[in-house]
Specification:
Blueprint (H helix, E strand, L loop, with lengths): L4 E5 L8 H14 L4 E5 L5 H5 L11 H5 L5 H4 L1 E3 L2 E4 L6 H5 L10 H6 L7 E5 L6 H9 L2 E7 L8 H14 L5 E8 L6 H14 L12 H5 L7 H4 L4 H16 L1
Parallel strand pairs: 1-5, 1-6, 2-4, 2-5, 6-7
Antiparallel strand pairs: 3-4
Helix pairs in contact: 1-12
The protein binds adenosine-5'-triphosphate and magnesium ion.
């Protein structure tokens, strides 16, 4: 069986839509008939909570899998047709105990290496460029960067780019930035359009043609533990995420 395409949703800037994109891209790809493993790799565990899972009560999470005290198979949950590797606050320990992980930057890669029954693995990264993000990037083929089309959207991108280059050089020469996703887009806002233009000039066809519009139901769905396709299948949000997933599948 072939290896899954591993995609990291990554941006050190907080609140840009990484978790929302990870969840709804995974759900959209599942709707398109793909087999998906969704990995919560953020100690905030927003992805896990967004699926209605009480992360704080969980014992079987990504952290004991990283520590090799639990197998990947034993940690996986089935949710909305996807497999989910949940997280909770214990994952912060991984940042503190870096040197205790035998393969350091390749810890996550080694754990996911045996996965052969999925088409995609989608990883939700924390808002930092630290050890957890480096682990996610060391095992990924593609990076998708969600961006809000606001003033300062590109601030910090320089640092993110140099971190990505470091990971490419040291740990993963196959890694590439393959998608910029405009999130919470509002075409009525002049600034949104102006920033979209300058991002398209800078990143060219890496910018997905589909933009994810600002849509209140996208923000509401997680409080019901649902994906956008379950919560509001006829919404702009569902339409945008499905279009984005069709682009992702075509680009492969
Ligand atoms: N298209 C959208 N329309 C409306 N609200 C949205 C949309 N996308 C994301 N949001 C909301 O924006 C907020 C931030 O999104 P999200 O949690 O996905 O960002 P993040 O980058 O994962 O944040 P963090 O850096 O803390 O992990 C959330 O409240 C989310 O519900
Ligand atoms: Mg998040």
């Amino acid at each position: 069986m072939k290896q899954p395409d591993i995609i990291a949703l990554c941006n050190q800037k907080g609140g840009v839509g990484k978790t929302t994109c990870a969840l709804n891209i995974a759900a959209g790809l599942t709707l398109l008939g793909k087999k998906v493993l969704l990995v919560d790799f953020d100690p905030q565990a927003h992805l896990t909570y967004s699926l209605g899972i009480a992360a704080h009560d969980l014992k079987k999470t990504v952290y004991p899998v990283m520590k090799a005290s639990l197998s990947l198979a034993d940690a996986l949950l089935e949710h909305s047709g996807m497999s989910v590797l949940p997280a909770n606050m214990t994952l912060t320990e991984m940042e503190n105990e870096q040197t205790m992980f035998s393969d350091h930057e390749f810890t996550l890669k080694n754990k996911l290496a045996g996965v052969r029954d999925k088409d995609y693995i989608i990883i939700d990264c924390p808002p930092s460029t630290g050890f957890l993000t480096v682990n996610a990037l060391a095992c990924s083929r593609d990076i998708f960067i969600p961006l809000q089309m606001e003033f300062l959207a590109l601030k910090g991108m320089g640092r993110l780019m140099s971190r990505i280059e470091e990971v490419q050089k040291s740990f993963n020469k196959n890694l590439k930035i393959s998608g910029i996703i405009a999130t919470r887009f509002d075409s009525r806002k002049k600034l949104n359009n102006a920033i979209m233009e300058s991002i398209s000039e800078r990143f060219g066809d890496k910018v997905f043609a589909t933009v994810i519009r600002e849509n209140i139901v996208v923000a509401e769905a997680p409080s019901f533990g649902q994906t956008i396709f379950e919560y509001a299948p006829k919404s702009h949000g569902a339409e945008d995420f499905l279009n984005l997933c069709e682009e992702i599948v075509k680009r492969k």
